[in-house]
Specification:
Helix content: 40-55%
Mean pLDDT: 77
Distance between the termini: 115 Å
Shape: elongated
Number of helices: 3
Radius of gyration: 33 Å
Structural class: mainly alpha
Strand content: under 5%
Order of helices and strands: HHH
Low-confidence stretches: none
């Protein structure tokens, strides 16, 4: 092989090895929104995949040094934002919680506060009162 052929072969191999791979789809799970048909979900899914691909296409032309992981993350963010705006259920980060708070430090809202002042004294003839020892 001539030196020029070797140079072009090495350059081609380095160029191919340095290229990043574009995402082919999302790496996140999105579920259909409440009351949304599966056909509508699939249509929105296709549109949002196209939207996400267009977003990373603009990013790769502006920044050629993006890694495959960065491109996938950008793709996933654009896809999730698109699906969310169309009313579908998307993944969230953070702890799960009930709609109503609960716990020992938070009493239920329907219990009224105790009355002010001292409690009344128990009657003397009550069967379980401390003053009635004739049981």
């Amino acid at each position: 092989m001539s030196p020029i052929t070797t140079f072009f072969a090495v350059t081609a191999v380095m160029a191919i090895a340095g290229c990043t791979t574009l995402p082919t789809g999302p790496n996140v799970m999105v579920l259909p929104g409440t009351g949304v048909s599966f056909d509508k979900f699939r249509t929105d899914d296709t549109l949002c995949e196209q939207y996400a691909a267009s977003q990373i296409g603009a990013a790769t032309s502006a920044n050629a040094s993006s890694s495959t992981d960065e491109l996938q993350e950008r793709y996933d963010v654009a896809y999730v934002q698109c699906m969310y705006t169309k009313g579908h259920r998307v993944p969230i980060s953070g702890p799960f919680s009930d709609l109503e708070p609960h716990g020992a430090d938070m009493p239920p809202a329907h219990i009224p506060p105790p009355p002010t002042g001292a409690p009344p004294r128990p009657p003397h003839d009550a069967p379980n009162s401390p003053g009635n020892l004739n049981q």
